[in-house]
Amino acid sequence: MADAAQRLRSLAEQLLGAPLPVRLRAWDGSQDGPPDAPALVVRNRRALRRMLFKPGELGLARAWVAGDLEIEGDLYTVLDVMAGLVWERGEDARGLGEALRDPGVRAAARELLKLAGPPIPPAPPREEIRRPRRNLHTRRTDRRAISHHYDVGNDFYEIVLGPSMVYSCAYWEDAGTLESAQRDKLELVCVKLGLKEGQRLLDVGCGWGSMAIHAAREHGVSVVGVTLSQEQAAYARKRVADEGLTDRVEIRVQDYRDVVDGPFDAISSIGMAEHVGAERYLEYARQLYALLVPGGRLLNHQIARRPQRDESTYQVDPFIDSYVFPDGELAPMGTTVTQLERAGFEVRDVESIREHYARTLRRWVANLEADWDRAVRLTSPGRARVWRLYMAASALAFERNRIGVNQVLAIRTPESGASGLPLRPRTWHG
Asked: What is the model's pTM?
């Protein structure tokens, strides 16, 4: 009798202590749950073993990346309701261990083990990066982490990002396109930095060169862009040459800690500081401070998480760490501002553009889904699934105010105290 879906629903609801708001479809063709709801498809018993051997987010992620778990219907709806059942409740191995003290839950777990088949842990998908979490944020480990994320093929990123090739939050108008919103974001950064013809700009984490090209072409500045990704650098250099800007833009494969040819009039760091790490953040801030002329400006564009009551309990998201941004860390906005001030900066403006990132991510997901078969050919089915999941889940996280993104304008204010800012700097909003 085909009844795996009914058994799964009953067992899952016992383990979670809450009803499942999605429909379940199992490998034997059985279905159970609201007929008009999106479906969670368990394609084989291996999906169960993945979740049993790694309870919580990582087990679910492995099942998804491997293709053992599918979603039929609206991806965002399923992720949103599952967040309340799993991610936000912290259903990790420790939480399950506490739940197993209940005799009913223990019985459900035993039944789930029987249903899962042979008690052999499946190998993690090959897209998962596996390394010890020690000696983080050395030059070597940072190069490896950046390569894992960015060196997956420029053609793949062209599908996701579109012609702008900007991999950070856009700045939207109601009727804007992704390309116009990314152009407006780059211009917003340039205006906040007060760029003038003949100045020098350092673009830290320059990606595929979009900021460097925009600043040089539209504002007449000379730009040094640094990245740890070989593929990004090659792509950016070609774009610079095609634009006829080789006399004003230099793209380097270089760690920001190794930049010694300052001073610069301005520094942009857009979506890079998340890779720095808490232990290195003050070093990062001091390095950028030292590279600026007195009166020089830093625009730090960075994702932030919400502060915790006990910050010592903060843990990196296991899915993001294992599949997306190895060794990446998010800090609360207040921590970032404090570290910049400790380095000597005067923080003059903080602008939250959280809703803009949600809209950007939804656009990237749509781009990926529209050219899915080609994206899979360029990378792998697992890699494409990683990007779809992380971008969709991140869009919801921004929409629900679980994470935010902020542009922080900071100045190396000279001893005279003259900041160089207009009395009403917010005129850049028009």
From this structure: 0.91
Phi-psi region of 244 (alpha: psi -120 to 50; beta: other; left: phi over 0): left
Cβ-contact 29, 16 below 8 angstroms: no
Hey, what are 325's tokens?
């941004």
Sign of CA pseudo-dihedral 112, 116, 122, 128:
negative
The Cα–Cα gap between 73 and 163 comes to 29
Q: Which of 249, 344, 242, 244 has its CA nearest to residue 290?
A: 344
Reduced DSSP (H G I as helix, E B as strand, rest coil) percent helix, strand, coil of the chain, to 5: 50, 15, 35
Q: Which helix (H) or strand (E) holds 251?
A: strand 249-253
Q: What is the DSSP letter of 276?
A: T
Q: How far apart are CA 343 and CA 281, in angstroms?
A: 10
Whether the Cβ atoms of residue 201 and residue 209 lie closer than 8 Å to each other: no
pLDDT tens by residue, 115-167: 888 888 899 999 888 766 566 667 776 666 666 566 678 999 999 999 999 99
Rounded Cα gap, residues 168 and 181, in angstroms: 11
Q: What is the DSSP string of 103-150?
A: HHHHHHHHHHHHHH-S--PPPPPTTS----S-STT-HHHHHHHHHHHH
pLDDT, tens only, 259-287: 999 999 999 999 999 999 888 999 999 99
Q: Token digits for 392?
A: 């969709």
SS3 297: strand
Among residues 305, 298, 273, which one has the least CA distance to residue 349? 298
Would you call 336 exposed, middle or buried from its count of C-beta atoms within 10 A (0-12, 13-18, 19+)? buried
- Sign of the Cα torsion 138, 404, 167, 57 reads positive
Amino acid sitting at position 117:
G
What residues form DSSP beta bridges with 347? 410
Which residues, including other chains, have CB under 8 Å from residue 103's CB and lie 6 or more apart?
none
The token pair that represents 206 in the structure block = 């320059």
Of residues 214, 220, 123, 219, the one with CA closest to residue 165: 214
Query: Distance between CA 245 and CA 96 in Å, rounded?
Result: 57
Question: Above 50 in pLDDT, residue 93?
Answer: no
Length of the chain: 430
| 350 Cβ contact partners less than 8 Å away, ≥ 6 residues apart | 333, 337, 406, 407, 408, 409
Query: In 3D, which of 182, 191, 129, 176 has the Cα closest to residue 320?
Result: 129
